[in-house]
């Protein structure tokens, strides 16, 4: 589900179109696997994501909480405006970078 990379390159994890209770556990497993691979950065590509409920937020937060000091940076890229609003309301944008687009995340 995620693109392979060297430790210095970011690892991309594509997010589903809708992150809800039907897919949140699987999505969370993919994030956990990405973090365990040991990259310096894990970028959640939310380019296609148009909906994210509390189970999706929980999956992202669980992945964030698995990162220890010196672990990879977790960031989100290109969330739809409605999804970005949810991320802002719950304060995820204060915990991790939320980039406007994928190019910005890749160069950030």
* Major sheet strand order: 1-3-5-6
- Helical fraction equals 40-55%
Distance between the termini: 22 Å
Low-confidence regions? 1-6
Characterize the overall form: globular
CATH architecture: 2-Layer Sandwich
Major sheet attributes: 4 strands, parallel
Q: What's the CATH H-level homologous superfamily?
A: STAS domain
- CATH C-level: Alpha Beta
Tell me the series of helices and strands, N- to C-terminal. Answer: EEHEEHEHHEH
Rg, alpha carbons:
12 Å
- If you average the pLDDT, what whole number results? 89
The helix/strand class is alpha/beta
In DSSP terms (H or I, runs of 4 or more residues), the helix count works out at 5
Beta fraction = 15-25%
Give the secondary structure arrangement, pairings included:
Blueprint: E1 11-14, E2 18-19, H1 24-36, E3 41-45, E4 51-52, H2 54-66, E5 73-77, H3 81-89, H4 92-95, E6 98-99, H5 102-107
Parallel strand pairs: 1-3, 2-4, 3-5, 5-6
List keywords for this structure.
42% helix; 5 helices; globular; Transcription Regulator spoIIAA; 108 residues; disordered N terminus
Describe the structure.
It is a single chain. The chain has a single domain (11-107), classed as STAS domain (Transcription Regulator spoIIAA), CATH 3.30.750.24. The longest helix has 13 residues, at 24-36. The chain has helices at 24-36, 54-66, 81-89, 92-95, 102-107; strands spanning 11-14, 18-19, 41-45, 51-52, 73-77, 98-99. It is of the alpha/beta class and 108 residues long. Helix 1 (24-36) packs parallel to helix 2. The model is unreliable at 1-6 (pLDDT under 50). The strands form two sheets. The protein has a four-stranded parallel β-sheet. The protein has a two-stranded parallel ribbon with strand order 2-4. The chain contains five helices and six strands. 42% of the residues lie in helices and 19% in strands.
């Amino acid at each position: 589900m995620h693109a392979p990379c060297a430790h210095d390159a970011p690892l991309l994890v594509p997010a589903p179109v809708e992150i809800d209770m039907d897919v949140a556990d699987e999505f969370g497993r993919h994030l956990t696997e990405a973090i365990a691979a040991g990259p310096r950065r894990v970028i959640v590509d939310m380019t296609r994501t148009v909906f994210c409920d509390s189970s999706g937020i929980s999956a992202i937060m669980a992945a964030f909480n698995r990162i220890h000091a010196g672990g990879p940076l977790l960031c989100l890229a290109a969330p739809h405006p409605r999804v970005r609003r949810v991320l802002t309301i719950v304060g995820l944008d204060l915990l991790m970078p939320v980039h406007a687009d994928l190019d910005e995340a890749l160069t950030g």
